[in-house]
Queue: 2 jobs
Job 1
Amino acid sequence: MEALQPESANALDVRHLSVAFTNRTSRGRRRAFRAVDDVSIAVGRGEIVGIVGESGSGKSTLAMSVAGLRRPTEGEIRVAGEPLARTMSRSQRAAVQVVFQDPLNSLDPRQSIGSGLAELRTLHPDRTRWATDEEILARVGLPTEVLNRLPRQISGGQAQRVSIARALLLRPEIVVADEPTSALDVLVQAQILKLLRELQERDNLTILMISHNLAVVEAVCDRVYVMLNGRVVEEGASRQVLGDPQNAYTQRLVRSLPRLPDSAWREES
Amino acid sequence: MIGIRLAAILGRAAATLLLAVTIAFLLTRISGDPARAMLGDNATADQLSTMHAQLGLDRPLVAQYLSFIGDLARGDLGTSLRYGEANLDLIVDRSTYSVQLASVAIVIAVLLGVPLGVIAALREGGLVDRVASAAALLGQSIPLFWLGQMLVLLFAVNWGLLPAGQATGVSSLVLPAITLAMLPLAHIARLTRSGMSEVMRSAFVMAARARGLPSWRIVLVHALRSAALPVVTVVGLQLGVLISSAVAVELVFAWPGLGSLATEAVERRDFPLVQAVVVAGAAALVLINLTVDILYTVIDPRVRDGRS
């Protein structure tokens, strides 16, 4: 097996990104709503960067835009220096991989794990040749037996490992992890976080992690952006931002959001 | 597990068939004296009692029922009073036409309804979706006998493009099959649209898009397979609806199928034939539902494992 990441500049550069939705008022008038408003972020190679904020802050919309699943209204997204086209090519899609919140529902219920990997190999033969199915499963701590299983025949934690394996197989420039542990129980959460940390340290994997769990972000992320009403209100090293928040909203967020004792995560990871 | 499920499906089918057959038997008895219905109000007592004896109606109801069930078990559906032939032979003969018509109709309904539903779901809220949804609603609302007559007027009488009816060749199948397909087509299109629209919003479809799968593959290989299960059920159920819809369509197009046979039997007061056609129709419905149940078990692994 080779290393996952080639060397170069930032894995992700988001510049002045805005994403607007249009809905109708009770009087039937069209109204534009900016879910993401002039946001700029950067993620260096091999970094784990967190995006935190309460529900509706725009963090998931930002993540979906980076993954090409939501079209931006304004601004630019560059992956490894290359601007993402409005209609992303297959190789651009492969460069940004997503690990979704609900691992079991993010796998086709009628497709075996092995068949899912085979499908990726057919679609991206050049990107996937670097590792066999057995090797990629071993990298995320799964036995080869899961290849013949359907998603309903594996646990939530295993399903999330399969999602991560699928993402790794494509040798992405960046993995967008949208609340990757929130649907899992605490013990499995810790195992998945430990795996992500290992992959970052061993393979120089770049991760943009969306989470509302500050303990998760503090334990795993190198840097963090705090979002409120579609805007970034504070950024910096995660320990600094979450340990000594400067912005009033971040201070409120740190005080109000559920947070496990720091030691609980550190012992597991 | 699958053996137990199949046994349960077969048991349920047998019970449903017995219930349907019993209702068919009772309905022909409680709707008046069949002998008087056949012979008319001027029939003499002697004529009535001869007819009663001929039809076995002079025996107690339970005895009649048991011998009816016994005959059915031996495959004996009785003899038609009008044709003087075994009802089973008549039904088999006419069924060929009905099966031909229903098969072509259901193929038209699936081949047009599924793509229409998929396109509408992919363009949700757009012009195509609104036009397709309106067309589907219209298709479900139009009375078949009216639609059939309009098609005859336009394509047979005015433009002379297709025959107006009767089983005279492949071309004579076109208009009745289109008419009969309208209802299931609309139903299948609506169901496919709602199923696909739900699946297209699901996490695994988003994940497939994020992995760079081409749209056609996401739609045809992943999403449609998930949305297909209720469609399979409806196709099965619509085959049942087709059997009853066929009565009107066969009348309009003078199509010599089971529907026409049933209408003739009622008009001629051929009570054994009416009873036989009802039993055969019920058996066909039970058989269709049985096939759908088994298909369901094969298609959906969760059903196979008894999880839902």
Job 2
Amino acid sequence: MTALDETHSTPAPTLGRAVRRSTLIRAVSVLVVLAALAAAPYVVSVTVILTLEEIAAFAVFAVAANLLIGQAGLISFGQGVFFGLGAYTVTLGWEHAHWSFWLGFALAPVLGAVAAVPIGLVALRARTLYFALITLAFSELFYQLVEQNTDFTGGANGVFAPVVPAWMENPVNGYLTLLGIAVAALAVLRWIYASNFGLLLRASRENRARIQALGTSVYRLHLLAFVVSGAFCALAGAMLVIYNQGSNAELFDWTTSGQAVIASVIGGMYTFIGPVAGTFVYQFGHDNLVRYVPDWQLVLGAVLLLVVLVRPDGLVGALRLSGRRGGATRGVELDSATEGSGATGE
Amino acid sequence: MDTFVTETVSILTNAAILFIVSAGLTLVFGALRLINMAHGSLFMIGALLAASLASALGGAWGFCVAVLVAAVAVAALGTGVEVVVLRRLHQREPLAQLLATFAFVLVFADLAQRVWGSSDRSVTAPVAGRLHLAGATVPEYNLVVIGIAGLVALGLWLLLARTATGWRVRAAVEDPESLAAGGTNLPLLRTSVFALGAGLAGLAGAAIAPLESIGPGLDTQIIVAAFIVTVAGGLGSVLGAALGALVIATVESLGTLWVPAYASSAPYLVMILVLAVRPWGLFGVPER
């Protein structure tokens, strides 16, 4: 894993060594974190393992959703559609078509991508807030359809059955499998974020008209992003089945989609790692705070408000700036551009 | 004939509530260019406030006082939210504003639960009579709600089309720069419109209190419906909100009669179809 932003910003030659050293530091720290995550299930309690299982799935979900939200600037409140589709592909395939778990798991992202084409074709015609609300409508449409068609989908109760292979019901095995899948999926997503395609998406967020004028069809570009995001959101949904041992209709709800938005924004939506960090904070906060603080939503709302008001670039942005005063090249273009767009207006 | 009348009154009642809520949402969008996700929370707080006050005061007049106090209190709450938070975000991108209001959805949901608990409450209508209308019996209170919506529509039309303030509100949608150059205090105008929008949410919430059981979850339920109405009608258009409210209430009601299994999904389908043809809604303006 190489650093994401080095590929785009053009560091001055004198900074080359500093950048190379920071790449090395990052590679080592990524390895350390991965080793710690792999060793974690042998150290921590089962409750924490289960939270980590949840995080593996939701981190992929948030990073996939953030490809639209933070990178392309498309505020989607509808990625829950694909998250739910992924989960239900596994469970309904098992129930109605007697697919094995892994067959459903492999087909989930394919179905997510296929479903994203017509939804994206319609939703992307709408801009900014209209886009946010039409994706929210798709989320609710699917939620209602799944909840009402009780015969096929199990309705509000969802589908809970021994879908997952027996060996994975052990939390350690389940977690390690999820960790492996999450690392692989995140590696691919990271490559996508760092690719020219990812760069174009960020450029379209900053200046749509200019990208259009340069000869790229922004509509088609965003449709491709929508399809890629849909595929990975569906994969994340299929991953969640391992944690959940089933699927329930709420996965489609706009509040599930909103969770990806919150995680991305709290963590830092202009970076790759931000949504992952945000997911850690969100899920640990959710699982632990709930036990001590009954008003968990109040805390979450306050944190969200604080981030929006004080640090629009999220936790990762806050950490990055404090750790990189002077000589920093990484992300400067993005950060300054974002602050710049905030200062324009009347 | 009698089922037709009953059905029409029930549709109009739902449309009336939807219109009052959506008119507030769409006015706020027009003047502030933001979608207030916490609009449903203000609606819920209005309903809960009215329910508490009405049962404390008692009687038909007690209910009227409760409705007015709830609307004014929610308008004041909205003013606070606008002045303390949203005003700071005015220059920022749409996502920041959307998320700030989303944060208030979470905060208000928990605060309301703190204050009013998690059980549902009900309110007795100030007028419990039933009216005989073309062979059908209609609850009088439903007609009151329809009347309130009519008054709101008339009031908004008078305000927007007949007063200088209304002219400024419309101008703030079209060309805020020139308006500011002409000496209009834009921040004050925005705060006033936000307060009006919040007040309408509170009023609608108070008006619905005798019709439904009031409790947690009311906020997300109504906000999604209001989104459908305002977006299909066109953000910023009060006329669009009125038409949208009628269409959505009709679709919901006929859906329940004819295809009960799909009734709850029908409004979303209508909104998606409208936006597929006109991505800026029926009476909206394409964004620049």
